[in-house]
Amino acid sequence: MNVDALIIGGGLCGITTAHRLAKRGCSVVLVEASEDIGTGANYANGAMLVPSQTAPWNSPGILATLLRSLVTQNPTVRIKPKAIPTLLKWGLYFLKNSKPHLHELHRRQLLELALFSMDVFEDYYKGYADQFDAKKCGTIKIYRDQSSLEAQIRSNRHLSEVGLDWEVLTPDQTVEAEPHLQALAPQLAGGIRFSADVVADSRKFCQLLRDDLVASGQKIHVNCQANELLMSGDRVIGARTTIGDIRAKNTILALGANTRKLAPKDARSILMRPVKGYSVTYDTTGVNDLPSYPIIDEGMHVGIVPINGKLRAVGIAEFAGHDDTLSPKITRQLDRLTKSVYPNLAQTIDCCKREPWTGFRPMSADGLPYIGATSSKGLWVNTGHGHLGWTLATGSAELLADLILDKPTALDASTYAVTRSH
Ligand SMILES: Cc1cc2nc3c(=O)[nH]c(=O)nc-3n(C[C@H](O)[C@H](O)[C@H](O)COP(=O)(O)OP(=O)(O)OC[C@H]3O[C@@H](n4cnc5c(N)ncnc54)[C@H](O)[C@@H]3O)c2cc1C
């Protein structure tokens, strides 16, 4: 078989790439190591598409935050000592890119990609919103101190410049918008509502695209791991997988946090590390009065999102290498954070079935994803979307499809090139 494209990895980046290529008439094969599509970093993620939140995590005060986390009890940023040696080179570039002008530049570049993604996403929203619980409800960010609220207001200027709506809310208006925050009102400095943000179930979205691809005759192999790339001279011509060799004109690496493991030497310039995150989904079936807005508590670094008739708390950044152990201590920390935002819902939540989960954000050192060609002919990547993979998935896939098909791109693709300097 010699198909147009072999996509390795069936997370958000892989399945959207396959779908955008198939829509253009390409034949695609996608291989996924686990038992289904969409079981990686997106499985129980924050479910928010947030063009309003495109700041890379290495903001100008990041070093102080990291140092503080070493001495704080129950920090939301954690570093496992055994992971430190793997972080040295990446960490230097991560800190270098926290300089204010670089951080601002990357935030704007991510916003550009997020806006493009929201355009591409609109097609899916129009056709299938109810099949993946998508809602254009916006998000509300809450602030417990005046100075952080004011800092956010100052930094929202770039959103206004591109026409994204945001609105400052007094504590009373915040509670009026989301009455479940009533008990928190005395502690609130205020909130900001970002009306362009969307909530949607990324796992169901992956499954929707999977079914559409299969229905149109494309091939998806689950429980199929790619173990090495097949070369012909300096050209990548497919991959050796657990079900045999698959040959393709183009091979796309979309293995999330594992991408570097399969990349040939030249593509290892990809500076990316896994940053482990956690969520706890409370099965609130039968509770008829749930919050209607996703709430992001800036100071506590937690998001609490109503999704699918359930409530999901999401947060924590842990540098633990590829160790995917689900720490009960950390999931209990998320329970406490949920209670600190919704003290009145706490009793209901206490009685709910809860599903804890952990996943790896594939985090680049400069905060930008890697989308495009590698220096091996026929080999492409779509990875490194960190905490914004759902927000950026559809636009990244469209951009890569344009590059592969040698079409003009809607954005300057060199920004996200594998070969960019960090
Ligand atoms: C806790 C948490 C909350 C988040 N919340 C949000 C949010 O609210 N909004 C947002 O925009 N983003 C969010 N994200 C980020 C987003 O979920 C990720 O950026 C995105 O899912 C990454 O997708 P991916 O396809 O690159 O990686 P993955 O989803 O990890 O996909 C990679 C796939 O490759 C497969 N694979 C690996 N090795 C092989 C191999 N050798 N052969 C075959 N297959 C292989 C894996 O099994 C996996 O399925 C969150 C992430 C986390 C962890």
Features:
single chain; FAD/NAD(P)-binding domain; 422 residues; 12 helices; alpha/beta; eight-stranded mixed sheet; nine-stranded mixed sheet; binds flavin-adenine dinucleotide
Describe the structure.
- With 422 residues, the protein is α/β, with parallel strands linked by helices.
- The protein folds into 2 domains: 2-42 and 203-270 and 367-416, FAD/NAD(P)-binding domain, CATH 3.50.50.60; 48-198 and 272-364, D-Amino Acid Oxidase, Chain A, domain 2.
- Helices cover 33% and strands 26% of the residues.
- The chain has 12 helices and 19 strands.
- The strands form 3 sheets. Strands 4, 5, 6, 7, 13, 14, 15, 16 and 17 form a 9-stranded mixed beta sheet that branches.
- Strand 11 (235-241) and strand 12 (244-253) form a beta hairpin.
- Helix 1 (12-23) runs parallel beside helix 8, helix 1 runs parallel beside helix 12 (389-404) and helix 4 packs across helix 12 (389-404).
- The model has no long low-confidence stretch (mean pLDDT 94).
- It binds flavin-adenine dinucleotide.
